[in-house]
Amino acid sequence: MSTFQAPKGTYDLIPPRSAVFLAVRDTIATQVRNAGYGYVETPGFEDVNLFARGVGESTDIVTKEMYTLTTKGGDQLALRPEGTASVLRAALQANLHKQGNLPVKLWYSGSYYRYERAQAGRYRHFSQVGAEAIGAEDPALDAELIILADQAYRALGLRQYRILLNSLGDKECRPVYREALQTFLRGLDLDEETLRRAEINPLRVLDDKRADVQKQLVDAPLLRDYLCDACKAYHEQVRELITAAGVVFEDDPKLVRGLDYYTRTTFEFVHDGLGSQSAVGGGGRYDGLSEMIGGPALPSVGWALGVDRTVLALEAEGVELDLPAATSVFAVALGEEARRILFGKVTELRRAGIAADFSFGGKGLKGSMKDANRSGARLALVAGERDLAEGVVQLKDMESGEQRAVALDGVLDAVRELLG
Ligand code: HAM
């Protein structure tokens, strides 16, 4: 143990569990790549105002949870709490929206930072894979993204999740609803802070988790009843498209998200085995975000799936991913001459694309075979002085225990044959 520990609310990804994280990222990435999304990578920090304006000045993320810093040059930066504002900023900066057909479809994977109250499933450093379709207002895009996320979770083997779907309206109908909700909230018995929130961001009050608040919200007006005809028709098309794709979802008229940029379609993937931090992913449409950060009108939609919580969900369901063994061949060398020759063989195998490892540290036969077992390798390559004198090495099948002598220059071919 060192004097230092990972900071509060963070943890290290270490083998063998880290392999599951990689597989989760990879599975999600496979789905979006397969649907024409291109990879984008942006810096881990941005101008703090990008998030203040984009995510929303009154959101918890901006007011309480951002890691901000002032550089020696006086720039105000924030570690990114989410990816959407950054990705849109990058797309605008590179003029991607002017270079061809819209939508511009991008995906990303990385670390995000929120100074949250740390608990199981809620961390201060976490990992997301996200996808954004920028610059088109088309219900098929909203549907595509929901279907792709569903496909990613299914491909991983998850079953106990639900998709919650809502529409948050647009700049025509939301203000009317906002007013109606505010009038309703002003009549309730709420503490001062909640009343203040009702004035700044009334929709957020709907998301209050406290039972005494929820009890009073039973008769709150619902945005669903205030949607304008265009929003209603749009939402109906999204619902029809995902239904036709066989994706099961629940209408959740009270679903509001923790970021202010959403318009129309919003959705969340919740897992029933995770307790209070149940959202494994979420997203929606953000038709006004580009203008909020100084760009042209670019209606867009996207999601981000939380890698940490997806791994927790896999563990909660007892799903074991079919992970390929890291090593196919493990070389056990007995004596100096064997070390020299087998180290060469390991290099040869690796150059031929075969995953191979070596018994480092000058161990004896027993210790080295233990290492070979632990590595999960299908084959062990064993050689001592007597083998080398005969110009052979022993190739052992770790499962059946069968062993045969192979000529030194025939190792690569024999390994290839046995591994199929
Ligand atoms: P979000 O709902 O804030 O949305 O985060 C997406 C997912 O990231 C959550 O569902 C959760 O799985 C994971 N997550 C968020 N915070 C934490 C945390 N503190 N610890 C562990 N996991 C966490 C966004 O970030 C939007 N940018 C999504 C989006 C993309 N909307 C449109 N495009």
TrEMBL record:
Pfam families: HGTP_anticodon, tRNA-synt_His. Coiled coil: none annotated. One of its GO terms (molecular function) is histidine-tRNA ligase activity. PROSITE patterns: AA_TRNA_LIGASE_II (PS50862). Its main location: cytoplasm. Residues 17-324 form the Aminoacyl-transfer RNA synthetases class-II family profile domain. Keywords: Aminoacyl-tRNA synthetase, ATP-binding, Cytoplasm, Ligase, Nucleotide-binding, Protein biosynthesis. GO terms for biological process: histidyl-tRNA aminoacylation. It is found in: Cytoplasm. It is an enzyme of class 6 (ligase). The keyword Phosphoprotein does not apply. L-histidine binds at E82, G83, T84, R114, Q128, E132, R257, Y261, Y262. One of its GO terms (cellular component) is cytoplasm. It catalyses: tRNA(His) + L-histidine + ATP = L-histidyl-tRNA(His) + AMP + diphosphate + H(+). Its EC number is 6.1.1.21. InterPro entries: aa-tRNA-synth_II, aa-tRNA-synth_II/BPL/LPL, Anticodon-bd, Anticodon-bd_dom_sf, His-tRNA-ligase, HisRS-like_core, HisRS/HisZ, HisRS_anticodon. Homodimer. Belongs to the class-II aminoacyl-tRNA synthetase family. This is Histidine--tRNA ligase. It comes from Streptomyces filamentosus (Streptomyces roseosporus). The lineage of its organism: Bacteria, Bacillati, Actinomycetota, Actinomycetes, Kitasatosporales. The gene is hisS.
